[in-house]
Amino acid sequence: MYKHTFEEKLNIVSQVKNGTPILRLSRNLHIREGMILEWVRKYDLYGESGLLKQPKIRATPEIKETLVRLVIEKHLPLP
């Protein structure tokens, strides 16, 4: 699977923002419409940093335990 660069993603999102239909970009660039929609959504939520590769973070048992304690003790709602 090909990984798209930050610059490619930004260019595609810019084209969408400038009015180019997602379906046309999808067909011309051979990228799933859903992928382009996801990039636009992330751009709308987080700006350019939303298009950067995010590190994979695994929750350790200690982190999980801390989160459960916070939810129980402070009666925090689950998202």
| Spans where pLDDT lies below 50 across 5 or more residues | none
**Number of DSSP strands?**
0
Q: What overall geometry do the principal axes of the alpha carbons give?
A: elongated
Largest sheet: none
**Helix/strand structural class:** mainly alpha
Q: Assign a percent range to the helix content.
A: 55-70%
Please state the oligomeric state of the protein chains shown: single chain
**Number of separate helices:** 4
The ordered H/E elements are HHHH
Distance between the termini: 32 Å
Mean pLDDT: 92
Strand portion, in percent?
A: under 5%
CA-based gyration radius: 18 Å
Describe this entry's structure for a reader.
It is built from four helices and no strands. It has helices at 6-17, 22-29, 33-46, 61-74. It is elongated and about 50 Å long. The protein starts with 5 loop residues before the first helix and ends in a 5-residue tail after the last helix. The mean pLDDT is 92.
SSE map:
Blueprint: H1 6-17, H2 22-29, H3 33-46, H4 61-74
Helix pairs in contact: 1-3
Features:
79 residues
Summarize the model shown:
This protein is an all-alpha fold.
